[in-house]
């Protein structure tokens, strides 16, 4: 870190020049002892966050970003060791603090928010007591602590904080739990807060709200933030500075806007190219990918850690590890050829496979009319899906979006035959009624790719058996024919033959998902339900899987029902999009139209929740929690949270799903002219 | 199309890894050593010692260089009887355990796989049976069927069934909801296939742990039943039986007629439990 950059930052934030950096990590080496051997995880990490500053650490799984967070609080697991380097929090050396001082530091100066809020809260203590405890530690009396806890819960926009105080953690939704954890972390003024993927696993709308909240409280308290994440959009929104971590080394670092707009390390360039960007269409252009596998710091090669996967690598890269080279303006890149990085050659060809002819006129492959699904919960009837009409044409991708609890998964399970809908529902595939699983004739026609590749494959069976069994049951193949088809299938999903003998746990997440895709394609499927197939995967792996799905579609003319909460992904893969809210179809239409508008107020909220790395769209806040399906709101189910509610008609009368233009339909009382449009350029 | 290569670091197999962990656990090794000792006694003991040779003139002799563990009322060498006494218990207890595990696993799979009335009805029955003490149950069965090695195996096996079933049911309940089971359903697999070929291989670790734990109880129960006179019959040299025959002699100061058999039972039960602990730890 140059002094120049230091001075630059100091002068940028007036009045803080005299305060020491909130966090300063220099030359940090961390290793874990695994089975008697020492495995390096972080190598020579340098980070400086000025008081009140924000720093984002991005990287894919296994790059050491969580380890950096843990090390900053001296909270490494038992087998973790800090081998070298210094960690200063507010000028105090964390690595040298005695136990009492360390406890004091954690109590007053630093706090942390983890990915899983459910595990950060004590399940046996009421929310109120847990939050009040923080103030108690800060020296407040019991009465005052409770009063301040109540006020704090109000500040994190929890509706009815008094009743939430009396509840136990399991009685709150994931979003509410995370807000409580953030309330606790920011309850008293801290120098530094470490956020480790705080919104992974939350809905986009909830994520947006949680991030807004962190931003507001941070500003009020002047707290510095170390934000750990894999999502570049989120980092772009939250952090002034960003560091890209790869195999335990910081490969690029600098002001977030500059780094994302003009990356100077091939890894950053590759990572950004993996993201489905606005305006990209899978029928025309494929996503770029990064070849090879993520190494860990332990398996990293001698020269540049990224050299084996880099399209620009030369002999010097394989021999000499590059230093972090300063580029001016507070930026630096660990690349010998940082000037060439923007010209990194593509790994995946840009040319999309020949698209099948426009099938808009074809008869629908899947036709769903008047689908209702009622669950019995004790004596109560819960309507999970109500009056759903939709169709999927051959070779088409229908994107399905909505918050958790909107009925997306129930709809998928009904199509697959795992759940039986109400009697009056009509489902047809190619004009033939779609029966529940036990009575279904052509099982191969509808298959599924699951969200979590770890649980989707039987961990006791080798890959060859998993795919072979699917071929036996779905394609009726045996003997040599099965073997032949199996090899064709695995090659089709770019899986080496050697993996057929391996067990699932020997495969990475992306490879497991390839196996799951091969299995779904075992017997000539017509429709494949993809339930968030890439949400558990790293960005670079996601790009490869999305390309694979697009290739297979172009090759075999299969249709997809693509469920996802990542709107950028949905936009990239879908021809048409359906938006679900509380079991109702709020909007359905061609992807371009749904995104460009006019769109349903709920779609507008969803869109504004994920504005993309450029952050061009103005946020439309969504108030409150998704209502319970047991007792849905009267009238339009969205009226309780709708930013565009027009009046009593919304509370009393449910609007019809009225057709607008070009097969676009919206369930809203407002006219098309009054509905929102995307405000992005 | 280029295929993706196999990363080298992931090649070690799970089984090998678990074995290595086991062999590093001293408790497991000690337990295994004791069990192997008793198994070799059971297999070869009678080639070396004769548990039935009596020497009535030398009855109730205290431990000495000639009779390490002393002699009993009939002047039979206690050391020979302890060594040879391992045979029947090491046949009967494992067989009873296997029977209990097999029956319990089958029942547990059905209970866990069919939620709703099937599980409700079976669970209530299992709970009712579990409310009765295991020993009373086995005693009842043996009195009804008559004592023999086969009936002891059947009685203990049947009384283990509900306990094992409950463990297996819990394991099946978590597996049943995983996506791989849904994927198997989607290709039209039968319930039998789902239970036996999809779910069962994944719940083997808890079943193996249950097996070792049950084995400990089985040894104990076999010995107890012999002691109560409804298990193995004289003159076979059995630990439990020997204690039952000789415990009246403790009052006369002839402690060696009971102590060494009791220690043998204790050592075997402890050894099995040590092995069970080791396996349970690795199964995590």
TrEMBL record, chain A:
Any one GO cellular component localisation term in the record: plasma membrane
Protein's UniProt keywords contain Ribosomal protein: no
Domain called ABC transporter: residue spans: 25-272, 368-607
One MF term in the entry's GO annotations: ATP binding
InterPro entries, per database record: AAA+_ATPase, ABC_Ni/Peptide_Import, ABC_transporter-like_ATP-bd, ABC_transporter-like_CS, Oligopep_ABC_C, P-loop_NTPase
Main location: membrane
GO term, biological process aspect, one: peptide transport
Localization: Cell inner membrane
PROSITE patterns noted in UniProt: ABC_TRANSPORTER_1, ABC_TRANSPORTER_2
Sorted UniProt keywords: ATP-binding, Cell membrane, Membrane, Nucleotide-binding, Transport
One Pfam family linked to the record: oligo_HPY
Record organism: Lichenibacterium ramalinae
Xref: SUPFAM superfamilies: P-loop containing nucleoside triphosphate hydrolases
Bilayer disposition of the protein: Peripheral membrane protein
Highest taxon of the lineage: Bacteria
Family: Belongs to the ABC transporter superfamily.
Protein name: ABC transporter ATP-binding protein
CDD domains assigned to the protein according to its UniProt record, in alphabetical order: ABC_NikE_OppD_transporters (cd03257)
UniProt xrefs under PANTHER family: DIPEPTIDE TRANSPORT ATP-BINDING PROTEIN DPPD, OLIGOPEPTIDE TRANSPORT ATP-BINDING PROTEIN APPD
TrEMBL record, chain B:
Membrane topology field: Multi-pass membrane protein
Main location: membrane
ABC transmembrane type-1 domain ranges (all copies): 86-276
GO cellular component: plasma membrane
Compartments, as annotated in UniProt: Cell membrane
Pfam families: BPD_transp_1 (PF00528)
GO biological process: transmembrane transport
Sorted UniProt keywords: Cell membrane, Membrane, Transmembrane, Transmembrane helix, Transport
Transmembrane regions listed in the UniProt entry: 21-45, 89-113, 125-144, 150-168, 215-233, 253-276
Similarity comment: Belongs to the binding-protein-dependent transport system permease family.
Protein name: ABC transporter permease
